[in-house]
Amino acid sequence: MGTLLQFGGFAIMPFALLVLSGEGAYPAVYGQFGAALAFLLVGAGLHTTQTAGLALATDIAPEDSRPRVVAFLYVMLLIGMTGSAVIFSELLRDFSELKLIQVIQGVAVVQLLLNIVALWKQEARNPTLTSASRLRPQFGESWAQFRAAGGSTRMLVAVALGTAGFSMQDILLEPFGAQVLQLTVGQTTALTAFFAIGTLGGFALSARMLGRGGDPYRLAGLGAMIGMFAFAAVVMSAPAQSVLLFRAGTALIGFGGGLFAAGTLTAAMAVASGSDSGMALGTWGAVQATAAGGGILLGGGIRDAVASLASDGMLGAVLSGPAIGYCFVYYIEIALLFATLVAVGPLVRTTRTNYAQSSAKFGLAEFPG
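Above: the chain sequence. Below: its structure as tokens.
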């Protein structure tokens, strides 16, 4: 179902964008509705597929190998995103509207085929689990089971705060480097590599720590704390005009974000093992996606609003310059990550899950087949 929703969204998207440009035979407002529908379908399909995939991973992965599973899931996600970005840049090098339609529709077909291949024989057929006569719990019953297994409101608040804290910068780091530190296009594009390296380091460390019996909430708290120092480094790079400090901060944002994401997902999988996996991971995914989307939206809006006030002189002579709008957002992210630490603190060791493994190596040996 998620794959089909994505296919429909990608099929609509290029034509909606063309109408949105105002060059079509219909008013641009039709393009706005079409684009909204297309992105809604793609987003809904993405998270439907993600939730089902995480629930499947929880079901088939032994408890002691889940830290490796979480780390490898995120690593493959990062590799897929990076690889597809390179492919798209090559395909759209000689841009045209027809080429855009072809690429997006090609994505629709490719994701359909890839998901079919990924699902093939992943789970043995069990007619009793899908029987129409099977008793299915009501939402309230599943929610009560989720809460009893450790899915507290505090856990969801921590996920929301931390995700928003790491996400608000998503569309701001590259323009910050260009506008404040005068980096070239090539230099700002290279920031993606620093961020990816930091994120991969976070995933590797999380697999190692959790594989040795570490607490997932403690790991998430460590990620939030590192994120606070990372954003402070980015803020300080502006008055210091230090590209090195900015790059280090970017890598640390990825590192802290990787630790936080791996820790919270591992905790959600532990809750899922004691309750309905779809409910637990669906709730985690809904909170995570909503916080990420809202954080990105607020980050861009707040930056523009503060920059506009500063350019009009309404914030005074001291609070002026191109960095003010960006730094205001980064300060908010530091505050959100501090609030995340407050929320995560009481969760540490409230539920003891032993993830200890026979080997601390970050490898495929214990990855479920």
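The chain has two domains: 1-74+93-119, 142-344.
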